[in-house]
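2024-03-11 09:14:02 DEBUG pipeline.ingest accepted 1 chain
2024-03-11 09:14:02 DEBUG pipeline.ingest length=431
2024-03-11 09:14:03 DEBUG pipeline.predict start
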Amino acid sequence: MSAAAAERIGKYEVLRRIGMGATSSVHLAWDPFRQVEVAIKRLRREILADPQRGRLLRQLFLNEAALAGKLNHPHIVRIHDALVTDEDAWLVMDHVPGGTLEDIATPATLAPFERVIEIVFKATRALDYAFHQGITHRDIKPANILLMVSGGSDIRISDFGAALHSARETTQIAGVGSPAYMSPQQVREVPLDHRTDIYSLGVVTFQLLTGHLPFEQENSYSLLYSIAHDTPPPPSELRPDVPEALDAIVRRATEKDIERRYQSWSEFSHDLALAFRNRSLALAPDRLGDTGKFGALRTMRFFRRFADAELWEVIGLSRFDRALAGTVIIKEGERGDAICFVLAGEARVSKQGRLLEVLNPGDCFGEIAVFSTASGLRSASVEAAADTELVTIRARALERASETLRMHFYQAFLEVLATRLSLASARIANL
């Protein structure tokens, strides 16, 4: 092992430096306890030695360290460990290797509209989760939204050092925030809430659609004046093929009047999901995308009690398929452990040639496989009566899911079984 490989930060073995900024460096390291690679952000020595900047940045590190273990969401970077002293300051977090949104925020590197919608949608859900934990980020920008894989749409939001940690804490910290992404409320230094993040994400969306910022001025004073007083152009003015629905979303997210802006993350998410669906992608399994999948599952009664994080986990466990009309999806007497949900279309359940039930969007079948994997024999056949979109989850995949997710599945399946028993009893009583 080389001397460089033996360098340590705390108990972590440094593998290599992977980034260098104006105030900190980022290192790839090995966590010997969890046996995984991690990223360590460390304040530079000369910054620590600066009486003014050093004090401010140590405070930001302390703010972020205070969130260790508290923000548990699939689209938020987790903080695992930290050290903040007068001599040293570092944070240990998930290693997210795919770069940042800066990589797709220039005119030459723009992503397809569908990918932009997915990325922004996931960001709205992550920030909504943080909001419900009493946290407002205050520094949303492309550099703070990381990509798990270059070219993908799976994201992690990072750098919560500037965050407000409660609904009552509305004061600002001088020198915090990136001017180009600041809301008018930040510029005017008035009390803030989650709607400042909504504005900033609207600016990020504008940049992902056009490769430009809404306001591009020669100096900070002119920039801040424009943010406070001017109306930004629609993205389509810079890129004519931007859909009208995305123009409308950006316009509402970046309203100067805070009461005309999106009032909740759910409103923002809803309009993004509609924009995605209106691009005729909702029923194409090969192009459905995580936004479409999330929206489809969220509308199902079965998943109404599942948290956002659990729905993302479901998407990771599932396969989205299309069965053409006449396709036998499962056959009576055959073995199988797949649980299926009808996303769109219609399917018919029959036993020995006799029609038992018609399944519509939101209905599930094959759930007995969850409770009886020993025999695994299908008691009835299911055939697609029309072209049908399906969500399929293997019982083995569900066994690998988190304990909380499995509990919610079992509760929901018991409700389904109870409803079916009730309907069967009613039919018998009417014979």
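2024-03-11 09:14:41 DEBUG pipeline.report The first strand starts at residue 8 and ends at 9.
2024-03-11 09:14:41 DEBUG pipeline.predict end
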